[in-house]
């Protein structure tokens, strides 16, 4: 029941509604593009690579997208688990979840007694120790979930949930607390970055306009605070740039050969004018990869091992999940 945080971005959008023409406001409010559209755009990109529509090694663009998304999701989980932020939609919890009316044990001990009293906050800073009497709260209802009983401390099921925890988990569609940064915007930004790298030009500018439209609508409809969308945009851009060295857009060996060809171009033309075929053959041998194939075997083998390890790890997690939850 904590009030939403003050959000300057939300105030700005409401102020613009009063200043801008009605038609523009309706366009800003319109649900032009959603998360599934960005995912469909990514699928088109991944398979366009397969048919040589863009310059990339095989399905490298799609693999880079998925790897960058995995890193971004991991960082996002670490971020929102670290600090609990109140939802921008204060009615969310009461509408979606059945939870006890009293706070979680940690909130009882470390948050509630000091949340609204400035002197209590000052005292806990000085003492660096929880000192307040938390009172007598009812103990949480505990079910027997076997090896998954540790989830009870986080999900806090009520007696009406019954003996199965699966009914609670299948309602998963995101929590009610604000999850900084926005996962929707991360998907949108990575799709825009992939599109820009693949095609560029006017079409990429249009995709980025759709990303901006989606960002303001996330804030306007109170799915996220403004900071969630802003952080997602620059984190997505930085992550995409950082993963570029793993999946380069163009063949590095090809660019090296072209650079060498540029260096010997004048000598090659002179040898051709002199009809010195031995010299031409000698110069062309300098351009040929030769021993580069053996040099590239190491990195290529490393990428194959990395890909196999990722696939094995993912399948192991899936098998463990099904095994540990098969008892309901």
From TrEMBL:
Keyword Lyase: no
Residues spanning the membrane: 32-51, 63-88, 186-211, 231-249, 303-324
GO biological process terms, semicolon-separated: ceramide biosynthetic process
Gene Ontology MF terms: ceramide cholinephosphotransferase activity; sphingomyelin synthase activity
Signal peptide coordinates: none
Chain coiled-coil ranges: none
Matching InterPro entries: Sphingomyelin_synth-like, Sphingomyelin_synth-like_dom
Domain Sphingomyelin synthase-like: 175-242
GO cellular component: endoplasmic reticulum membrane; Golgi membrane; plasma membrane
Keywords for this protein: Lipid metabolism, Membrane, Sphingolipid metabolism, Transferase, Transmembrane, Transmembrane helix
Record bears the keyword GTP-binding: no
Locations listed in the record: Membrane
Membrane topology: Multi-pass membrane protein
Top-level division of the source organism's lineage: Eukaryota
Family: Belongs to the sphingomyelin synthase family.
UniProt protein name: Sphingomyelin synthase-like domain-containing protein
Naturally occurring in which organism (per UniProt): Citrus sinensis
UniProt lineage: Eukaryota, Viridiplantae, Streptophyta, Embryophyta, Tracheophyta
């Amino acid at each position: 029941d904590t009030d939403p945080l003050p959000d300057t971005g939300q105030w700005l959008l409401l102020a613009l509604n009063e200043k801008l023409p009605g038609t523009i406001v309706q366009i800003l409010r319109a649900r032009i593009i959603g998360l599934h559209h960005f995912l469909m755009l990514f699928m088109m990109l991944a398979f366009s690579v397969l048919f040589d529509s863009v310059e990339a090694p095989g399905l490298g663009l799609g693999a880079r997208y998925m790897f960058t998304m995995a890193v971004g999701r991991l960082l996002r989980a670490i971020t929102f688990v670290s600090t609990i932020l109140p939802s921008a939609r204060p009615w969310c919890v009461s509408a979606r979840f059945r939870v006890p009316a009293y706070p979680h044990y940690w909130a009882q001990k470390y948050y509630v007694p000091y949340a609204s009293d400035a002197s209590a906050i000052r005292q806990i800073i000085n003492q660096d120790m929880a000192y307040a009497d938390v009172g007598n709260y009812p103990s949480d209802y505990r079910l027997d979930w076997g090896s998954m009983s540790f989830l009870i401390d986080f999900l806090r099921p009520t007696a009406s949930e019954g003996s199965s925890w699966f009914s609670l988990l299948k309602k998963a569609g995101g929590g009610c607390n604000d999850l900084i940064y926005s996962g929707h915007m991360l998907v949108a930004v990575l799709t825009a970055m992939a599109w820009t790298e693949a095609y560029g030009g006017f079409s990429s500018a249009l995709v980025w306009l759709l990303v901006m439209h989606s960002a303001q609508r996330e804030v306007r409809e109170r799915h996220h605070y403004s900071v969630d969308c802003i952080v997602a945009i620059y984190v997505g851009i930085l992550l995409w740039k950082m993963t570029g060295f793993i999946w380069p857009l163009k063949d590095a060996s090809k660019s090296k050969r072209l650079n060498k060809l540029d260096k010997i171009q004048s000598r090659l033309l002179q040898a051709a004018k002199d009809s010195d075929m031995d010299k031409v053959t000698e110069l062309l041998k300098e351009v040929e990869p030769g021993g580069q194939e053996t040099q590239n075997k190491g990195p290529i083998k490393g990428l194959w091992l990395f890909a196999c390890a990722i696939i094995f790890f993912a399948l192991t997690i899936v098998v463990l999940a099904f095994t540990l939850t098969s008892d309901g």
